[in-house]
Amino acid sequence: MISYMYVRFNAEITTPEGERLFGIFKVSQYLSDAHLITDPDDDDRLWQLFEWFNKYLSLPTKSHRSKNHDQDSKALAWFKDTSTVHISVMHEISDITQRYGGVVDFVTTEKPGYILYEDDYQVFAEPFKD
User: What 8-state DSSP symbol labels residue 3?
Assistant: First the structure.
């Protein structure tokens, strides 16, 4: 069995209305949609990177262990450490996001939780309770 280190980019931002948004894609898209990315080149690049991910990364077929889809049991996406190109693209999204007010943390773990979906580049895992 192959052992991976898993990589995740946690992001958050609080909007002027007090809404807290989580997830690097959601946060960076909010910054763009709210016209908070003031450099048009950065905004264009961000959307190019989104398109790249749409082309080169599959969506999971399952993101909950239980049938009730409890919010607390939602899976988190993690890249396998061997997904160097995907991680590099995420760093670029992270840089743009942070430049315009998003808070991004780079997290690694050997045990992301109960793996619900896996492909060559990523896993979706429900975190362990402890």
Answer: -
Look at the chain and report how many structural domains it folds into.
1
Which residues have CB under 8 Å from 102's CB, separation 6+?
11, 12, 13, 24, 27, 28, 31
Q: Which residue has the tokens 């607390």?
A: 72
pLDDT range class, residue 61, cuts 50, 70, 90? confident
Cβ atoms 121, 115 nearer than 8 A: no
The verdict on residue 28 lying in a domain is yes
Segments forming the whole domain that contains residue 10: 6-58+83-109
Residue 88 CB partners (closer than 8 Å, separation 6+): none
* Longest Cα separation, the chain: 48
Residue 1 falls within a domain, yes or no?
Answer: no
pTM value is 0.88
- Do the Cβ atoms of 31 and 37 come closer than 8 Å? yes
Read out DSSP for 28-48? HHHHHHTT----HHHHHHHHH
